[in-house]
Design a protein that fits this description.
The complex is a heterodimer. By secondary structure, chain A is mainly α. Helices cover 79% and strands 2% of the residues of chain A. The chains are: A mainly alpha, B mainly alpha.
Chain lengths: 493, 483
C-alpha cells in the first residue's frame, strides 16, 4: 500500500524531481515534470487530509525509526488543511505558468526556474508535514533559499535587490527560529513536537523557555510578514515573476502562520501563550496596525502588484487578529481566512500575471481602459477584489463574519467596528483599479492588447470560481477549520 | 410556485440579453419577455400569500444553521409585485429612451438592469437578514454600472458617492447590526413579532435600531442621503425604475421589515430609546423638501422629493401602530407609481426637447400635452390629493399620527404637503399656462417617442387605478399589520 507512505512522498517526490529538472536541461520537459509533480502532490495531500479527518492523527516514522529518536511526520486536520492549500495552489499555478514564464524568464533558465519551484514546494510541504522541530528549520531554509532564487529571476533588475532584502530579513528570521528551537532542545532534550508538548509545561516558567517563545515568535513573524516586520514583502512580491508572486503570496506566509499556530498551541499550549504570557495583546495591536497602515499605504500604490502586496500585509493582520482574540471562534476565523486569503490572492496575482503578459508592468496608468480589451481578466480582478473587500457570497465575507463574531463574543465592540471599517479601505484601493480599467481612456498599449491565452485564463478563473464557491458552500472550509481550531485550543493533538 | 424562480428568471434573462447583444431588436424582445415571465411568476404566488401561506425555498446553506433562504410574506409580495410589473413598463420606456437618445453600451445597460431586478426580487423575498444583506449588496453592485453609464467624469464622481455611501453604511452599520443580532438572538430568520423581543435592553435596542436605520443607506435617511442625488447622472430609465422604485424601495422595505420582523412593533413601542427615529425621519422629510424647492435641475428636484418621500415610510413605520404600518406599506406602492411617472415625464422632456432645468419648462405643456399631463398626475399624487394613490397612504399615516397624538408627525406631514405643492405645482402651472420665455428660438419639437408615451400613460393610469381599486394591496398590508 503506497498510501501508507503518503506523508513521506509529499516531500520526497518534489525534492527528487528538482534535480531531475536540472538534469534534463529542457524547458518543456522541466515544466511537464513540475506540472505532473504538482498535481500528484495535490492528490497526495487530499488523501492525507481525508484520512486525518476520519482517523484523527496520522503518524509516520521516517526510515521506521521510532519517535522521539527518529523523525516523525505527523498529519492532523490543521496541517492536512495546509497541505491541501499549498499543493492546490501549486497545481493551479503550475498549470498557469507556461505562457507566463515563457514571457518573463529567459528560456535558457527555465529548467533551473522549475527546479527552484519544486524545491520551494518541497520545503513548504515539508514544514507542514513534519512533526520534528529541527526538521522544520531545515525545510524552512530549503523553501526560503528557493524563494530567494525565484524572486531574483524577475525581469526587473530591482528583483535582485528585492531578493537580497528578503534574504537578509529571512535569514535573521530563520536564525531566530533556530535559536528558539535550540533553547527548547536545551531545556527538554527533545526535538519531536509531540514530545516537546509533553515536556515544555514542566519547565514553562524558566527563562530559557520564555526566551525560546520570544525568539520563535519574532522569527516566525518575520517570515509571515507581521507588521512591522513586513518590509521585505512589498518589493519581493512586486518584482518577482508573476507566477512566483502568486505562488509565494498564497502559500509561504500561510505556512509561516501555521508554524506560529503550531508552536503557540501545540508546543507551548493555549493556556500558557494566551493567558500567562501577554502574546495576544501584542498580536492585537500589531494586527490592527497592519490592517489600517498597510491598507492605507495600498491606496497610494501605482504598481498593482505592490498594491496587492500591501493588501496582503493587511490581510495577514486579519489572520493574526483571529489568534489574538484567544477563542475557538477567533481561531476558526484565522484558519478560514488562511485558506480564503490564499485562494483570493492566488487568483488576483494570476490575473495580474495575465495582464503583465500584455502590458508588462501592471500599473494604474498601464491598465487604463483594459476592461474593454481584456474583459475576462478584468472582471476576474473585480470579483477577486470583492472577496478582498468581503462582499457577501465571496470567501472574504465568510472570514470576516467569523472574525467579527469572535470580537463580539469577547464583548469587544470597538474591535468589531474597526474590522468592518478597515474593510472599507479595501473598497478604496480596489475601486481605483476598477475606475482605471473601465472608465479611463485606453493607454496606447492597452488599446492594442488582446485577452490572455486560455492556458492562463482557465487556472486563474478556477481560483476566482473557488472564491465564489467557498463563499456559498462553507461545509468543507468552515467545517475543517472548526475542527482544527478545537484541536488547537484543546492542546496536544 | 417556488419563489426562487423570481430570482432565476431575471438572471437567466440577463445571460440571454448578453448573448443576443448584437441584435438590438432581439435583445429588447428578450428583455420584455423576461419581464413578462417574471410578473407571471410573481403573480402566481399572490393567491397563496393572500390565503395565508408563506412559500419558501432554501438556496444554499452558507454557514452552519444559517442558510440563504427565501420566504414570501405580504410586504415582500407587495414590493415584488410593484417592482416586477413596473419593470415591464420601464422596459418599454427604456427602448424609446435609449434609442431616442442614441445611448452607447445598451447591452450592458439591459444586462445590469435584469441583474438588478433579480437582486430586487431577492431582497423582497428574503427569508432572513443574511439573505436580505446578500441581495441588498448585489443590488448596489449591479446598479453601479448603470449609474456610471455615461462614463463621464461627472458619472464616475457620482458613482463614487453612490458606492461609497451605500457600501460604507451597509458594511459599517448594517453588517454590524446583523452580526450583533445573530450574537444576541441566535437566529436571523424574519419572524412575526420579532426575534429581538425581550433579548435586548432599552439602550441596546436604541443603538441597534440606529445601526439598522442608518445602515440601510438605501432608505436615504439624512445624513446618508447624498448617494441618491448623485445617482441622477444615470440615464432616466435607471432613475425611474431603480432610483424611484427598486433600489430606494428596497431600502424602506428593509426598514419596515426590520422593524416588523426583527424588532417587533409591540416590543419596540415600549422602548424609550427609539423615540429619536420619528424626529430624524421628520427632519429628513422637511429638509429634503426645502432642498427640492430650491433645485432648478428637474431630476435633482425629483431626487430630493424621493429622499423626502422615503422618510414618510420610515416615519410611518416609526409610529409603531398597526395602522401606520399599513400606511408605510401602501406608501411604498403609491410613491413608486407616482414617482416613476414623474421621472418618465422628465426623461420624455429630455428626449424630445433636451431640457433639464425647471426654469426652461415654461409653455412646454402645449407641445407635450401627454407628457405634462402625466407629470401633473404624478405631482398631484405626490402631494396626496384624491383621486390619486398618494392620498390613500397619506390618509393612513395621518390617521395613525392623529390617533396616537403624535403632534410632531402631524405637523411634519402637513408642512411637507405644503412644500410638495410648492415645488411641483409651479412646474405644472408654468408648463400649461405660461408662454415660452424666448419665443421658441430653439428647434421645434413635438411629443416624445411613442414607447415613452405609452409607458408614462400606463403608470399615470396606475396611480388613479390604485386609488379606486386598492383592495389587493390593502389586503396584503392588513396581513402585515395583523402579524
Amino acid at each position: 500500500m503506497i498510501a501508507i507512505h503518503f506523508p513521506a512522498l509529499q516531500v520526497v517526490v518534489p525534492l527528487l524531481a528538482a534535480p531531475l529538472c536540472v538534469i534534463v536541461r529542457n524547458a518543456r520537459a522541466a515544466w511537464l515534470i513540475a506540472l505532473a509533480v504538482s498535481w500528484a502532490m495535490l492528490y497526495v495531500a487530499t488523501g492525507l487530509l481525508a484520512e486525518a479527518l476520519s482517523a484523527g492523527v496520522i503518524s509516520y516514522r521516517l526510515g521506521s525509526w521510532a519517535p522521539p529518536w527518529g523523525i516523525e511526520y505527523r498529519v492532523d486536520p490543521v496541517n492536512g488543511l495546509l497541505l491541501v492549500l499549498v499543493s492546490f495552489v501549486g497545481a493551479v499555478v503550475m498549470t498557469f505558468s507556461r505562457a507566463s514564464v515563457d514571457h518573463e524568464v529567459p528560456r535558457s533558465q527555465h529548467h533551473l526556474f522549475y527546479a527552484a519551484y519544486l524545491l520551494c514546494l518541497s520545503g513548504l510541504l515539508g514544514i507542514a508535514v513534519t512533526g520534528d522541530a529541527f526538521n522544520i528549520f531545515v525545510f524552512l531554509e530549503i523553501s526560503s533559499l528557493a524563494t530567494y532564487i525565484l524572486i531574483a529571476m524577475g525581469r526587473d533588475r530591482r528583483a535582485l535587490t528585492a531578493s537580497y532584502q528578503y534574504l537578509i530579513m529571512g535569514t535573521i528570521g530563520a536564525t531566530f527560529i533556530v535559536i528558539g528551537i535550540g533553547l527548547l532542545y536545551l531545556m527538554t532534550g527533545t526535538l519531536n513536537l509531540a514530545d516537546l508538548a509533553q515536556r515544555v509545561p514542566q519547565v514553562e516558567h524558566t527563562r530559557p523557555v520564555l526566551a525560546a517563545l520570544a525568539f520563535l515568535t519574532v522569527g516566525i513573524s518575520l517570515k509571515l510578514a507581521l507588521f512591522p516586520l513586513h518590509l521585505w514583502l512589498p518589493n519581493a512580491y512586486a518584482y518577482a515573476p508573476s507566477m512566483v508572486t502568486a505562488f509565494v503570496a498564497a502559500t509561504a506566509t500561510k505556512v509561516a502562520v501555521y508554524l506560529l499556530l503550531r508552536f503557540f498551541f501545540t508546543v507551548f499550549g493555549a493556556s500558557f501563550v494566551l493567558e500567562q504570557v501577554q502574546v495576544p495583546a501584542i498580536l492585537l495591536v500589531l494586527s490592527l496596525a497592519a490592517m489600517f497602515v498597510a491598507s492605507t499605504v495600498a491606496i497610494y500604490q501605482d504598481d498593482l502588484k505592490r498594491m496587492l502586496a500591501y493588501s496582503s500585509v493587511a490581510q495577514i493582520g486579519y489572520i493574526t487578529l483571529g489568534v489574538s482574540t484567544a477563542s475557538a471562534t477567533g481561531l476558526t476565523a484565522t484558519l478560514v481566512h488562511l485558506l480564503n486569503h490564499g485562494v483570493t490572492k492566488g487568483a488576483l496575482f494570476l490575473l495580474l500575471g495575465c495582464m503583465a503578459l500584455r502590458v508588462d508592468r501592471v500599473t494604474i496608468a498601464s491598465i487604463r481602459g483594459i476592461g474593454r480589451t481584456m474583459p475576462l481578466t478584468t472582471f476576474g480582478v473585480v470579483l477577486g477584489g470583492f472577496s478582498l473587500i468581503g462582499v457577501p457570497t465571496t470567501v472574504g465575507f465568510v472570514s470576516k463574519w467569523y472574525l467579527v463574531l469572535a470580537a463580539l463574543e469577547r464583548g469587544w465592540w470597538w474591535l468589531a467596528v474597526l474590522i468592518l471599517l478597515s474593510s472599507l479601505l479595501a473598497v478604496v484601493y480596489m475601486w481605483r483599479v476598477v475606475e482605471a480599467a473601465y472608465f479611463k481612456e485606453p493607454a496606447p498599449r492597452a488599446r492594442k492588447v488582446t485577452e490572455a491565452p486560455l492556458s492562463m485564463l482557465l487556472p486563474a478563473w478556477a481560483l476566482v470560481a473557488a472564491c465564489i464557491y467557498f463563499g456559498l458552500d462553507t461545509r468543507l472550509t468552515v467545517g475543517v477549520a472548526t475542527q482544527a481550531a478545537q484541536l488547537l485550543m484543546g492542546g496536544t493533538p | 410556485m417556488n419563489p426562487a424562480w423570481a430570482i432565476a428568471v431575471p438572471l437567466a434573462g440577463s445571460a440571454l440579453i448578453a448573448a443576443t447583444g448584437k441584435v438590438p431588436n432581439l435583445r429588447e424582445a428578450v428583455t420584455l419577455v423576461t419581464a413578462l415571465v417574471l410578473v407571471s411568476v410573481v403573480a402566481s404566488i399572490v393567491p397563496d400569500v393572500l390565503a395565508g401561506a408563506r412559500p419558501q425555498a432554501v438556496l444554499t446553506e452558507v454557514l452552519p444553521e444559517l442558510a440563504l433562504r427565501l420566504e414570501v410574506e405580504p410586504l415582500g409580495m407587495m414590493f415584488a409585485l410593484v417592482a416586477s410589473s413596473l419593470w415591464i413598463v420601464n422596459s418599454i420606456y427604456s427602448i424609446g429612451y435609449m434609442r431616442g437618445n442614441r445611448e452607447a453600451h445598451q447591452t450592458r445597460f439591459y444586462v445590469c438592469f435584469a441583474i438588478a431586478l433579480g437582486s430586487t426580487m431577492g431582497v423582497a423575498f428574503a427569508g432572513n437578514l443574511l439573505t436580505l444583506f446578500v441581495f441588498y449588496e448585489m443590488l448596489t453592485l449591479s446598479t453601479y454600472p448603470l449609474v456610471t453609464h455615461k462614463e463621464t467624469r461627472e458619472a464616475i464622481q457620482g458613482g463614487r458617492t453612490y458606492l461609497g455611501v451605500l457600501i460604507g453604511t451597509s458594511i459599517a452599520f448594517l453588517l454590524l447590526g446583523i452580526l450583533w443580532t445573530w450574537q444576541v438572538a441566535g437566529t436571523l430568520e424574519f419572524t412575526p413579532g420579532g426575534i429581538l423581543a425581550g433579548k435586548t435592553g432599552n439602550a441596546a435596542t436604541g443603538l441597534l435600531l440606529a445601526l439598522y436605520m442608518f445602515g440601510i443607506g438605501k432608505a436615504a435617511l439624512m445624513p446618508f442621503h447624498r448617494w441618491l442625488p448623485a445617482a441622477m447622472v444615470a440615464p432616466t430609465p435607471v432613475s425611474a425604475l431603480l432610483h424611484a422604485v427598486a433600489v430606494v424601495k428596497a431600502g424602506v422595505f428593509s426598514v419596515v421589515k426590520v422593524i416588523v420582523y426583527v424588532f417587533g412593533v409591540e416590543s419596540l413601542s415600549g422602548m424609550k430609546s427609539v423615540d429619536w427615529l420619528p424626529f430624524v425621519a421628520g427632519f429628513t422629510i422637511i429638509v429634503a423638501s426645502i432642498v427640492a424647492l430650491r433645485s432648478d435641475n428637474l431630476k435633482r428636484r425629483l431626487a430630493y422629493s424621493t429622499v423626502s418621500q422615503l422618510s414618510y415610510v420610515v416615519l410611518a413605520a416609526a409610529l409603531l401602530t398597526p395602522i401606520s404600518v399599513i400606511g408605510a406599506a401602501l406608501h411604498i406602492v403609491a410613491h413608486a407609481l407616482g414617482k416613476i411617472t414623474l421621472f418618465f415625464a422628465a426623461g420624455a422632456i429630455y428626449t424630445a426637447a433636451h431640457k433639464t432645468e425647471v426654469s426652461e419648462l415654461a409653455g412646454i405643456g402645449r407641445r407635450m400635452p401627454w407628457t405634462m399631463g402625466a407629470f401633473a398626475v404624478g405631482a398631484l399624487s405626490m402631494i396626496g390629493l384624491p383621486p390619486f394613490a398618494g392620498f390613500l397612504s397619506k390618509w393612513y399615516i395621518l390617521q395613525a399620527a392623529v390617533g396616537g397624538g403624535q403632534t410632531v408627525a402631524v405637523a411634519v406631514i402637513v408642512a411637507s404637503t405644503l412644500l410638495n405643492a410648492g415645488y411641483f405645482l409651479p412646474i405644472v402651472y408654468d408648463a400649461f399656462f405660461r408662454a415660452p420665455a424666448h419665443g421658441g428660438h430653439n428647434s421645434e419639437h413635438g411629443e416624445a417617442p411613442l414607447p415613452i408615451l405609452i409607458a408614462q400613460t400606463l403608470t399615470a393610469g396606475g396611480t388613479v387605478a390604485l386609488f379606486f381599486f386598492p383592495d389587493l394591496f390593502l389586503a396584503l398590508a392588513r396581513q402585515l399589520a395583523g402579524g
